[in-house]
C-alpha cells in the first residue's frame, strides 16, 4: 500500500477500523501510524497508536504482544508527563494478564489508578473490557456494576461507542442474572400489552 503523507490518516483509519471490528485493517493502519509518529518524534500520536494496538491485542487475547509493547508504551507515557497515559498502560497490561487467567487484583488496582487519573473515556473502555471478563468468569453482578459505571463515564465525555458497548454489556449481565435475554424480555413485554 502507499504510505500516507499525513500521520492523522493512518491513525484515524486505525481507530475507525477498530470500531468497525476490522482488526487486521486497524492493525495495519496503526502500525503505519506508529512508524510515522516515531519518524516525526510525535510522542502523543505514538502513545495513541501503541495503546490502540494493545487494545486490539487485549481483545484478541494476545498477552505476549501486550507485554512486548508494554515497556515502549510506558516509556512514551513517561515522556508525556502527568496524565492518564501511565494509568492506561498499566490497565492494558492488567487486562491482558487477567484475560490470560491472571489474578483480578492487578486489574482492580489498575482500574483504581485509571479512575484517579480522571480519564472517563479510557475508563469506559477498560470497564467494558473488564466486564466482559467478569461475564466470561460467570460474575454477572460485577459485570453489571462495571457496565453501569462505563455507561456513565462514556456519557460524561460523549463516547458513544463505549456507551453502546456498556449498554450491550449491561443487557448481557442483566440477562444472566435474571435468566433471560433482551429479546425474551421484549417478547414478554409485548405479550403483556
Secondary structure: elements and pairs:
Elements: H1 8-19, H2 23-40, H3 43-60, H4 63-80, H5 85-99, H6 104-116, H7 120-136, H8 140-156, H9 160-178, H10 182-192
Helix pairs in contact: 1-2, 1-3, 2-3, 3-4, 3-5, 4-5, 5-6, 5-7, 6-7, 7-8, 7-9, 8-9
Describe the fold and architecture.
82% of the residues lie in helices and 0% in strands. It is mainly alpha-helical. Helix 1 runs parallel beside helix 3 and helix 4 packs antiparallel against helix 5. The N and C termini lie far apart (56 Å). The mean pLDDT is 91.
What is the radius of gyration computed over CA atoms, rounded to a whole number of angstroms?
A: 18 Å
| Overall mean confidence score, pLDDT | 91
Largest sheet: none
Q: List SSEs in N-to-C order.
A: HHHHHHHHHH
DSSP summary, beta strand count = 0
Structural class: mainly alpha
State the distance separating the first and last CA atoms.
56 Å
The number of distinct helices, counting runs of at least 4 residues, comes to 10
Shape: globular
- Share of helix, binned: over 70%
Query: How much of the sequence is in beta strands?
Result: under 5%
What's the quick description here?
The chain is an all-alpha fold and 193 residues long. The chain has helices spanning 8-19, 23-40, 43-60, 63-80, 85-99, 104-116, 120-136, 140-156, 160-178, 182-192.
